[in-house]
Amino acid sequence: MKRCFWILMMFVCGTCVYAQISSDIRPVVGVAQFTSETDSKYAGLVTEKVVEMLTNTKRFQVVDRTSHDKIKEELELQKSEAFLDSKNLVEQDIAVAAEKLITGHINKIPIYAMKNANGSIKGYKGSVSFQMKVVDVATGLSTEAVSFEGKASDLMLSPESAVNQAMQSLQDEIYEYFKKNFPVSGKIIKVLKEKKDKVEVVLLNVGKKQGVNQGDRFAVQYVEMLDGEPYPVDLGEIEVVKLSGEAFSECKVPSKMGEELASRLASNANIVCKMIIK
């Protein structure tokens, strides 16, 4: 009897944990350890900074592959070949359930020790140049590699702080890269306001967690399957008027698309809302 009780408890607890994990609808993105043209001991700092920036967007569940590789040394990445061979990385990343994988290759990390007149070191300056691309784990297809070149840092107390500042100079550029390659997409889960067969306000299942802000706009599409292929039809645009909690957004629907949207929702059509990148 006791054994049955504990089995039941384990099942319930496992179900609860699964429910908590699956409730986070943010895409899972892995970041592989960046390869390097030279064996620089500061190469890891570049990967760590990209992981930090990706995490700070609050739009993704980030799988830090730098930690994953330490745990599973048998999946150690090759050097430059690993960056070029997307399939090799994809096969490895299935183990951590990432939908997309960010890979990178560092071209150079010049570090300069700045000296005083007597030869003693007064500080360090550094810069960084690297490429990034995004690999789709399911298909193995990747985007074109995009180059990033950080500004030379100020005089810093350590080589590490010089590299970090050089990376920080790229923050806005990298955030734009994330926006372009990972557009926010959501679903209409509830009609909040309706008048005379026209939808006026809807609730999306994306919000602060995904980096949505008040005033953001979403393109609404009805997706129909034709000959096994998705055929999207534009319905119009909706605007976020209120963020509800961490995971929802209330959006205003223009009068001209209210009736058609109501009809599509009533027929359980597949409707996708994609954030418009400004």
For this entry, give a set of tags.
single chain, seven-stranded antiparallel beta sheet, Rossmann fold, 278 residues, elongated, six-stranded mixed beta sheet, 15 strands, Thrombin, subunit H, alpha+beta, 8 helices
Task: Characterise the protein shown here.
With 278 residues, the protein is an alpha+beta fold. It has two domains: 28-78 and 97-181, Rossmann fold, CATH 3.40.50; 185-276, Thrombin, subunit H (Beta Barrel). Helices cover 32% and strands 34% of the residues. The protein contains eight helices and 15 strands. The chain has a seven-stranded antiparallel beta sheet, covered by helices on one side. Strands 1, 2, 3, 4, 7 and 8 form a six-stranded mixed beta sheet that branches. The chain is elongated. The protein starts with a helix and ends with a strand. The model is unreliable at 2-22, 68-80 and 90-96 (pLDDT under 50). Keywords: Signal. InterPro entries: LpoB.
Q: How many structural units, i.e. domains?
A: 2
- One letter per element, helices H and strands E, the order comes to HEEHEHHHEEEEEHHEEEEEEHE
Strands across the major sheet, in which order? 9-15-12-13-14-11-10
What is the CATH class of the largest domain?
Alpha Beta
Tally of DSSP helical segments:
8
Rg measurement, Å: 24 Å
Structural class call reads: alpha+beta
- Helix content estimate: 25-40%
Q: How much beta, percentage-wise?
A: 25-35%
CATH architecture of the largest domain: 3-Layer(aba) Sandwich
CATH superfamily of the largest domain: ABC-type transport auxiliary lipoprotein component
Shape: elongated
**Largest β-sheet summary:** 7 strands, antiparallel
Distance between the termini: 61 Å
**Assembly state of the chains shown:** single chain
Mean residue pLDDT = 80
Spans where pLDDT lies below 50 across 5 or more residues: 2-22, 68-80, 90-96
CATH topology of the largest domain: Rossmann fold
InterPro entries: LpoB
Keywords: Signal
Organism: Barnesiella viscericola DSM 18177
Protein name: Curli assembly protein CsgG
